[in-house]
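User: Could you walk me through two proteins back to back? I'd like the raw sequence and the structure tokens for each, with a short line separating them so I can tell where one ends and the next begins.

Assistant: Of course. Protein one, sequence then structure:
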Amino acid sequence: MYKFITTELIGKSSRLITNNLAQKILAAQIGITTEQWIILQILSSSSKTQKELGEITVKNKASINSLISYLLKLDFVSKNVSQKDKRETIIQITEIGEEVRKKVLNVASEAINETMKGLSDSEVELLNSLLLKINNNLTK
């Protein structure tokens, strides 16, 4: 029985965290959604294929395509055919996208600090470790 409660708590926490960040981004009037920012955040470290973005975000092809299309319209990302495999497209963040990502990062940091308030560093490490185990169980 306790496992059902744990699952409900994880789901509720996820929704609350996402909603809190979405509200803060909306209030900051940056003009981007949480999901779009997550894509920019992922691309800030290195370019990715659309397939990789789908795997990382656990989103289907249509959802990723929609997110990328909108980010392309805003010039936040660019899309190029892979030199290694012409069937793949490589998505990378643009300078404009990087500026927007940094603006949202400040808002996101505030939201994360609010979320983790009252947790010690060791509690956050334990939480991360447990969530990684859960994620690994579900992605095998």
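----
Protein two, same layout:
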Amino acid sequence: MSPVSYQTIKLSKGKHSSPEDGACVLELASMLAGEPFTDHPASVCPVIGSFLRCYNDAIDDDRRQALYECASKVVGSRGSQRGQRARADRLTEWAEEMRRSRRTWFLHSPLRALGRLRKPPIDAVGSYAVHSIPKHTDRTHASALALIDELVAIGVHDERVSARVIAARSRTLDPAA
């Protein structure tokens, strides 16, 4: 039997003790990043990680296998606190969009009202978003995958803008430049 690698591992529900037991999408991300095997890789944004951990466990095996690509996209996504806050805000907004799409909105209005009173904490916003999905369908799965792309892009944009601002400030502060 050949050793398990990031190329041969099957994504499955839950937390795993080693790659031989399987992996969730974030454990795969830790393998791709060359980090210790964990579902909380240091190189992944905690906001994106909170969503993917919960989403990985909420969907069926067929849809879960589509998360392979997400594992590679989120490696290196950890960024500034401002970027994390922007991602959490977008995730909360997406969750509200999902809640509004429910046909039984009147049954969930107390939950929506509670959600408006206070935002979920940054480490729980992923779970909040996944639980807002009315039913896991091909449409909601496509929306979740697009959301991951959007969340990764938020951080990339934030970091590029920050780098340009820092570079511009250093040029204006340094008379020799």
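Residues 108-114, 168-175 have pLDDT under 50 and may be disordered.

Let me know if you want the two compared in more detail.
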